Amino acid sequence: MSVATIAPPSLASRTVAEVASWSATLKVGALMMLVLVLAAIFAPFVAPYDPLAQDFMRTLQPPSLAHPFGTDNFGRDIFSRVIFGARIDLTIGFVTTYVPFLYGVFIGAVSGYAGGRFDAVMMRVLDTAMAFPFLVLIVVILAILGPGEQNIYIAIFLVGWTMYARLARAEMLVEKNKDYMTAARVLGYPGRRILFRHGLPNVIGSSIVFSMSDFVLNILLVSGLSFIGLGIRPPIPEWGAMVAEGKDFMLQAWWISTMPGLAIVYTGTALALIGDGLARRLGERHRTLV
Amino acid sequence: MHMLRYVIERLLHALPVVIGVTLFTFFAVQFVPGDPIRIMTHGRVSDEEVAAIYERLGMNRPLIVQYGSYLLGAATGDLGTSIIQNAPVSELIGDKLAPTLGLLAMATVLSVLIAVPLTLIAVRYRNRWPDHAIRVGSMVTFAMPPFWIGLLLILGLGLSLKWFPIAGFGNGFGGHLYHLFLPSLTIALFLAPILVQSLRNSMLDVLTSDHVEVARAKGLSEWQVLRRHVLRNALIPAITVLAVNISFLVSGAVIVEYVFSIQGLGSLLVRSVGYRDYPIIQGLSLIFALIVVAVNLIADLSYMLVDRRVLRA
After folding, report:
1. Alpha-carbon gap: A47 to the closest alpha carbon of chain B (Å)
2. What integer pLDDT is reported at residue B109 of this predicted model?
3. For the purposes of burial, counting CB atoms within 10 Å of the CB of B16, is it exposed (0-12), middle (13-18) or buried (19 or more)?
4. Do the Cβ atoms of A140 and B285 come closer than 8 Å?
5. Band of residue A284 on the pLDDT scale cut at 50, 70, 90
6. Which one of A5, A75, A81, B190 counts the least CB within 10 Å of its CB?
7. Which of A121, A124, A140 is the mutation pick for testing B, counting most B CBs within 10 A?
8. What CA–CA distances, in Å, run from A222 to A88, B183, B267?
9. pLDDT for the residue A156
């Protein structure tokens, strides 16, 4: 007797079906992000010039066909610098968002599930961390450790997890009394299994949606730190540092500061659109910041 | 009676946070790698002089004793002495308080003035094109770095059109308002999208409640329903949103003060980090955190006036 077999849908067709079900915002955001990530990965091929090459015959050139974003006071091609800058800002933004995401969600889920004294102490720590304006806290930590890229990572790793812990904890408080959790407990599963296999997948939604807003905030933060001289130093083409470099030439050459700023706006908009799409896809109770 | 209990309860709730904040600001400075006095004096003083400074500042006592005297000092307004400027930290901070508080207040007012009308339009035409346009506009504005918006406003409205001054705090009340307009607008443009999003969500929640149905059944126009029955009930979430985002507001102020050369707490912080003037950094982080705690407390207390039901809870 032969059994009629139904071939499972291929990966390609599943991907197409998945993308087709996305909201317009998710599609547009994902496309914008894809373009940017590809440009960053293939920066040496995309950028027409060396981002650090100075050309004193062509300083402060307005945007033209040869230099789409113009040139700066050292004659460097701003378009090339913006493309290479994407590598720096995207890397820092990604790492400073998703490393704290991992242990933030973990700490929050454990805290909400365990309750008791651990949870009480955790809540006091969160309240205290959140009493400090985020930028002030980062600046104070940088004042202690000294400025620079490595210390920005350390500073954000120290405080960036608090929002994820709060979100995951709040969701865990709701989830842990639901029937499926009770069932897992009645079945005698060890706490670790209940927490990781049953709890974690169900409390991660808000954090995933929020991480898109957080990604934007972290890019704004790192570029802001570079702008005030505590972050990435010139001549490295970090977007915030580039805006700072151009601020003394605003009247003669508006494009030096404007173009890297537009790159930040482009990236942030793409991430906000993705966040909006994810919020719709994962349910209305998950909310982005904007 | 209820009122008094509520106030005391809120104050007690803020207490552990204040203790946590002082613990952090005190112990953070202990983590400075190397010898803070040597770093601040760039190693140009002898061992005996360093020992003398330690003695004078009481930094050779046990940490717990030092923390105790730090708390006692902070409670009486003594935040130590700036080592670079050789003046009391509380005095240096006090001078800079007015521009920063003014900036925060004006930015809050401006962001509410921008956000509330936009939210009303978005809710009135929900899921139609004005709503979508406001939503996309919010996302784009949120993604704009405040330091960059500040520079563009300086270039456009300041240097080119010469409508507004581009730096400083001005003289007299009118002068302050005039000088703080562009910096406040910069912060408001960052804050307003966050306000619009949360206000829209909370107003949509109110829209599904029974009393709104009743108001519609009475034959009120949609605008009247929104203004009289929805906006007022969305006020509590709005206050919460403002209080929750005070952290963003202050963070924005630090950067914006730097961009517009306003002599406030933020630019003092940035400068002090450059000099590694730890007593000032310590004092400023304490003040900034206390501002946040105070705003949250005020928000909690204002619920009392907006919605008396919180007293019964």
Report:
1. 24
2. 92
3. middle
4. yes
5. low
6. A5
7. A140
8. 10, 20, 17
9. 94
Q: Residue B285: is its pLDDT beyond 60? A: yes
Query: Within an 8 Å CB–CB cutoff, is residue B275 touching chain A?
Result: no
Q: Among residues A223, A134, A228, A240, which one has the least CA distance to residue B268?
A: A228
Distances in Å between the Cα of B298 and the Cα atoms of B38, B94, B294, B311 are 42, 21, 6, 15
In this structure, what DSSP letter does residue A248 have? G
The verdict on A113 touching B (C-beta cutoff 8 Å) is no
Query: How far is the C-alpha of B245 from the C-alpha of B239, rounded, in Å?
Result: 10
> Hey, is A283 helix, strand or coil?
coil
Closest CA to B251 of B121, B119, B116, B145: B145
A133, B286 Cβ separation under 8 angstroms: no
pLDDT digits 0-9 by tens, A147-169? 888 999 999 999 999 999 999 99
Phi-psi region of B35 (alpha: psi -120 to 50; beta: other; left: phi over 0): beta
Q: What is the mean pLDDT of residues B202-223?
A: 84
CA–centroid distance for B8 within its chain: 24
Question: Is residue A286 over pLDDT 90?
Answer: no
pLDDT of residue A32: 97
Token digits of residue A118: 């651990």
Q: Does A272 touch chain B (CB under 8 A)?
A: yes
> B146 with A238: CB under 8 angstroms?
no
Residue with tokens 């706006």: A265
**Angle at alpha carbon of residue A175, lines to A174 and A181, rounded to 5°:** 140
pLDDT of residue A2: 59
Q: Are A223 and A140 in contact (CB under 8 A)?
A: no
Section B257-261 average pLDDT = 92
Measured CA to CA, the distance from residue B156 to residue A161 in angstroms comes to: 38
SS (H, E, C) B168-211: CCCCHHHHHHHHHHHHHHHHHHHHHHHHHHHHHHHHHHHHCCHH
Closest CA to A241 of A257, A217, A255: A257
Q: Could you report the predicted ipTM of this complex, rounded to two decimals?
A: 0.89
pLDDT in tens, A3-29: 667 777 888 888 888 888 888 899 999
Q: How confident is the model at residue B169 (pLDDT cuts 50, 70, 90)?
A: confident
Token readout for B240 is: 């919460």
B276 reaches A (C-beta below 8 A): yes
Please tell me the distance from the alpha carbon of residue A222 to that of residue A244, in angstroms, as a whole number.
13
In whole angstroms, what is the distance from residue B3 CA to residue A274 CA? Answer: 45
A67-97 burial, b for 16+ CB within 10 Å, e for fewer? Answer: bebbbbbbbbbbbbbbbbbbbbbbebbeebb
pLDDT value at position A244? Answer: 93
Compute the CA torsion angle B48, B50, B52, B55 (nearest 10 deg).
-130
Chain A's closest residue to B22, CA to CA, is A128
What gap in Å lies between CA B156 and CA B152, rounded to an integer?
6
Sequence length of chain A is 290
Distance CA A118, CA A89 (A): 36
Collapse the DSSP code of A189 into the 3-class scheme (helix H, G, I; strand E, B; otherwise coil) and give the result: coil
Encode A23-33: b = buried (16+ Cβ within 10 Å), e = exposed. Answer: eebbebbbebb
